Amino acid sequence: MASNRPAPEAPFVPSRHDTETFGHEGHRAEEGPWEEWNPTEESIRPVRGRHRVAKQRGGLARSSTVLGVGVIAAVGAGGMASAQAGKPPVPISMPDLPNVGSLISDEEPEPEGTATPLSGIGTASTDTAEGTTDAGETLRTRIMAQAEQQQAQAESRAAAEAAAAAEKQAAEAAAKAEEEAKAKAAAAKKKAEEEAEKKAEAERLAQLAKQYTLPTSSYTISSTYGQAGAYWSSGHHTGLDFAAPTGTLLKAVHSGTITSAGYEGSYGYKTVLTLDDGTEIWYAHQSSIGVSVGQKVSTGDVIGRVGATGNVTGAHLHMEVHTSSGAGIDPMAWLQSKGLTP
Q: Where is the M23ase beta-sheet core domain (predicted)?
């Protein structure tokens, strides 16, 4: 709260007398010469609203300046603290202070001092607090934007990974489907080839069957090739037996030449038909022979009759097949290779 300060006292100016009273031999420059001061009504009138500060360069002025700046800073800090605490600034009035510049300037001080209400300082502190709040809001907005950007990047990365996984899965599924299709196609091709081969073989055998025939008819297979038993001197059967009544006709299985015909020990009456490729067909245990050596025969020609001559237990045809090298083979397999089924 402003108040009227008393008028400054006039400087004491002593009269120009000798200074012997003070025990000095002569006056010094800093002590005089002095003049007397007679107060008047004008000089002692109280000063209102106008302040004069004497020019001085001592530490007092600077101390006052520092003090004034410190007070302003302290009050400003108090206002900022009040604003930051969410409380409205409290206006504070201060007495008129001399202008700070006039305390340290060599020039004439300003004619009037400035009385600054601290409510303005509080308002500045509020503005500062608002600026701080705005800065915090800006920081929060930036953080939220960064979080949203990171979230968007994470979602984009996850979507890319999911798309890559889906693409990989689709590629694997496509590759698997392609492999399965290839496998099915290969299996179908193989099956078709096998069927074609079977068909071709059937056609070939059908053509061969027209060229070959079974050695007899109305028969029963009584013994097979390789069958073991005491009936055979070698310990196993060397041919294929067709059991049939005595006198049943025997036919040439294929065209060829008669190379042997006659009685031969355990084989009884035996005929050998040699084919063009050198294969030999033996007919044993005949009751009679109808051909002679060197005779040419064709498929189905009668060459003899079923009998029971030689080492036998009943009437039957004992048929053996020998390759051109003389080795015996299974007559059943050979006949089947010619399209015949005994």
A: 236-330
